Amino acid sequence: RSSPQMVAAVGALFARPSAFADDAIPMPEVRAAARPDQLQITGDGTPVLRWRFLAGTGPSPWLARDEAEERITADVAAEIVRLLRGEARIDGRALRPNDFAVLTRSNRQA
Q1: Contact yes or no for 96/80 (Cβ under 8 A)
Q2: Helix, strand, or coil here: 99?
Q3: Quick one: which of 5, 79, 81, 88 has the most CB atoms within 10 Å?
């Protein structure tokens, strides 16, 4: 479930040439099923879409896969808790746990 505004933002981000590691990967046009006035998040004051970058903790700027997964998991969980405990609302009501979906690459990551 995404608002048309979110779908358009993600589409614009990935519709440019070389948006993916392989130019053969297409970005299909996608439309949201929700109306523009639905699925609106208010009361939080932070951007709905944010990029986060993790820097290595040692001499290398790169993270080991296990460390990256652990840190990303903790960050996502903390953000969900922050939103649930805060003033954010969706379509005028308080957020609930079932308002969140976390996409993972594998079942093991879930």
Answers
A1: no
A2: helix
A3: 88
